[in-house]
Amino acid sequence: MLIVVVPGVFGAIYYGFICADQYASETQFVVRSPNRNAAGLLSGFLQSTGFVRAQDDSYIVTEFIKSRAAIDALVSRDDLKAILSRPEGDFLSRYPLPWAEANNEELYQHYLRFINVHTDSGSGVTTLDVRAFRADDAYRLANALVQHAEELINRLNDRAREDAIRYAQIEVNDSQTRLSKMQTSLTDFRNREALVDPNKQSAAALDMIARLSDGLADNKARLSALEEQAPQSPQGEALRARVAAMERQISDERTRIVGSDGSMAPRIAQYEQLLLEREMAAKMLTSATTSLENARIDAQRQQLYLERIADPNLPDHALYPKRLISFLILVAVCFATFWIVRFFVIQVYEHAAQQ
């Protein structure tokens, strides 16, 4: 009576007259990534459209739907507490239960009773089943959960893209700063030395030395010929003065190019060093820019996409609870409990009789 009949009667009353109807809305979706290999018929079809299976990421979405983060989103944006507390629900199904407090932990446990989500390991398709006391509530909750899952995927995409691009962008910024500093150093050198290009100026000085050397050689030849033919000619003094002047000028020009700290040679070396550093900074900037573009392309290839295979349906008939099945399960459990208790009672009596 206590183990089978009384629970059976209460179960019949509850499932027959008290238990509230629950409507179910079902949706199916799959998480895809453009750069991963796929297997299976459905995956092969989606691969031909540019998407392949991302099963591990589907499990992430599954765990999110069953997490407290999903509850927080539903409470703040979709009025989850009101949906689970509808007056249509019976006292054993509404939130909170008569013997429980209305707190977040109780809400989480209650929420898990109204959702069922699983991912097929072969196809990667995730099926989400949501129940509620009203048909439109079940439809709203299913839509809201898929929308929050899409937002999660977008956040993961944004984080992965930012992480992939951030370091490349830092390298580009550093290269730009270094190139700017080299250009500033080069400008400061030109202003300080009053030279635009020491190489060109030294080339002009070398050209002048070459022309002076040619003139000097010609004048020396003329002076030598004059001394042999007419040593007493008054033109000899003029030629000697011209040769001496040209030799001094050549010596001065050479001193301007090399031979002292104020010559062109140290300036040329410093200028060429600045040019080399600027060229290296420019090449580093080009390389960093290329790396940034590659990082952006790779980040785009690693994007995840939540594709809906079947949108949530608006139910027109309550599928739950399964009253007859639930009642039969209750009776079977009661009978099993009865036989277990009866077995132990018999064992106790037999043991007492043997004493």
| General form | rod-shaped
Instruction: Please count the helical segments.
Output: 11
Order of helices and strands: HEHEHHHHEEHHHHEH
Whole-number mean pLDDT? 81
Q: Give the low-pLDDT segments.
A: 37-41, 45-54
Number of strands: 5
Radius of gyration computed on alpha carbons: 46 Å
Report, as a whole number of angstroms, the end-to-end distance.
30 Å
Classify the beta-strand content into a percent band: 5-15%
Structural class: alpha+beta
Largest sheet: 5 strands, antiparallel
* Helical residues, percent: 55-70%
Describe the model.
The protein is an alpha+beta fold. It is built from eleven helices and five strands. Strands 1, 2, 3, 4 and 5 form a five-stranded antiparallel beta sheet that branches. A hairpin with a 5-residue loop joins strand 3 and strand 4. The longest helix has about 60 residues. The protein is rod-shaped. About 20% of the residues are buried.
